[in-house]
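Weekly sync notes, structure subgroup
Attendees: PM, AL, DS (notes)

Item 1: joint prediction request from the bench team. They want all two components modeled as one assembly rather than separately. Inputs as received:
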Amino acid sequence: MKISVVKDILEANDRIARQNRELFDEKGVTVFNLMSSPGAGKTSLLEKTIEAVQGKIRLGVIEGDIQSSQDAERIARFGIPVVQINTGGACHLDGNMIRDTFEEFDFDELDLLVVENVGNLVCPAEFQVGEDFKAMILSVTEGEDKPAKYPLMFHESRVLLINKIDLVPYVDCDVEKIREEALKVNPHLTIFDISCKTGEGLDAWCEWLVETVRKRKSA
Amino acid sequence: MHEMSIAQSLVDILKEEMARHNVHRLRSVKLHVGQLSAIVPESLSFCFNVIVSGTELEGARLDMEIIPLKAFCQDCRENFEVENYTFVCPLCQGTNIRTEAGQDLSIVEMEVD
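Output from the run, pasted for the record:
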């Protein structure tokens, strides 16, 4: 006997993500899901961003890693709420893991929640957590072929931060080519060239972020 | 390797559906795997077999059909197949594109006894 089903396999996760989103909407909290391969600079970007926007908006951070609390410790130095999730092997965060952190946050006291996903260019793109948008980092040392090789993440992201731009003279990387390839996969990407090391380009990113958070708050 | 989480969700849905239809043996299940979804079919099969081993679902076959990426240009109303993951209309070069197929991961049919 054949039974026709037609069910999205990720529906269970999407449903939890939608519930998370309802809470964020109710509280007027902007949430973005930060993704990249390991070592591209997610935590460094967060440190620089917190320094620049603290005082303008109130931030909280969820740190996702397979193991260790080193990233949460780096963020806790800024005196903002941070929760570390250790996935214990899983390569991505999902809606349920995010929901489990809720009692650690007072969302009435937050404007922005950043979810730093597990370092991985593939899996995190497949799982919604209830975010307003996804932002991804590609560092210039990774090469310009990445949008073509990992199209889903580029396609799902609203923002692409091209990090370690200060290293361009030393590596075989054509930044214009990265932009071109990324825009093929997602013509609507907002792209920032940045260096967390020198600070180049971070002003533009932080201004965009503060503006986005404020717009959502007043919407 | 997120195929394990996906295989687990798949098994949860299959068990639910089998209970709903009051059937006990699953012969096969047909999936549509969108070209844009980051799933490796072999890896999903492997994880599925690991999860169902020793359960009532053991021995069920996973049939996966890869669904090509199709899109619709909302400017010139052209339907087209997305090649090389390039989301630009081949006719008018517009980027006001709506993805019509090839992004989802879904169960479409179960064969049961």
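Discussion: Chain B touches chain A through 33 residues (CB under 8 Å).
Action: AL to compare against the crosslinking data before next sync.
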